[in-house]
Amino acid sequence: MELYYSFSVLIVLASFFSYLNLRYLKLPSTIGIMIIAMITSILLVITGSLFPKTFTHFSTLLQDVDFTEVLMGAMLNFLLFAGAIHINLKDLREQRGPVIIFSTVSVVISTFAVGFMLFYIAPLLGLDIPFIFCLLFGALISPTDPIAVMGVLKEAKVKKSLETKVAGESLFNDGVAVVVFAVILQLTEGSNIDISFTTISWLLIKEALGGFLLGTLLGIGASNAIRKIDDYKVSVLITLSVVMGGYLIAHAMHISGPLTMVAAGIVIGNYGKMTAMSETTKDYLNKFWELIDEILNAILFLFIGFELLIIKNVTFYWQIGMVSILIVLFARFISIYIPVLVIPFKNKFSNGTIKVLVWGGLRGGVSIALVLSMNEGPYKATLVAITYFVVVFSIIVQGLTVGKVATRVLSKEEV
What we know:
mainly alpha, Na+/H+ antiporter like fold, 80% helix
């Protein structure tokens, strides 16, 4: 009953905030919901002394929800599958070089760039953060968030090739980021682990390749099953079973659940739609997953907005938070510019394309979920606060302007 109560409250608030956004703010849905949730959080804090029971009750409700488990263990799988099922495989193949490099090499470059800059700049602001924790922050903030990115790209109307680069990178970089974060997190906890190049490489290969193989097999199996019956109701159930059952299998095999969902979604969205589905089935399947995507996105960004309530003394961290925004943006630039400079990609990257890739690298719920998964310690509160500053800036400022930036800098360029 407690779970039903919590979920009911979230659905009611998400629908109400969605209505307010469409009626008055008229912003992209996810951004509008998050802004309204943040304003509500601030009002709750201000009126907390007048209505202490309401404030305490709502804060307890948020703290009782395991955001990391809800996002990484449930919502992310549905959202990644819903996004991947609409990815055109032909477009992805054309951009496979940049997508692979940006989702692997760029994540590692960004992790170390953020770590080093934060380590040397933080003491200037009166905060001494050990290097290993600076590196941990670099790992959790470096992956671009597929949910935030794809939600904004729907509104931005950028060219297809650039959209594929940004969306493809955001879909595939979670596997690498989670492995890097997990290794560094164990080091911060004093665990005696093997951090040799061979061990780390094996972990990455196991996570990524294992996820791809499992997702591909699930996608092919589901597509073949759909072809034999071609009933839209059963077809939707089959895709649901791929997402929910596929995650359980990936979790049991200790391979990447997110990459499993991406691979399965791409296979069903391309091979399945071409060979196994009638137009009626395609239409119902697309509408079902679009609806799932919208509902879960609304709940997710509602969560992000209300996370402000559980960050204690958030104003204390405003200086390091603002500096961290600049650090993350500069690290993003380095992580894009170095591979573009060194690797001979098939298509040359213009300066305008690099600018859009940097500005379009949004951070979101994945970063917050990772930082909240840390054990309690002396540096968790600091990392949670600065992560929140970066994510809020990324979603609101970058998210609302990436379309205009793309239009302005690419108006005379081909990408």
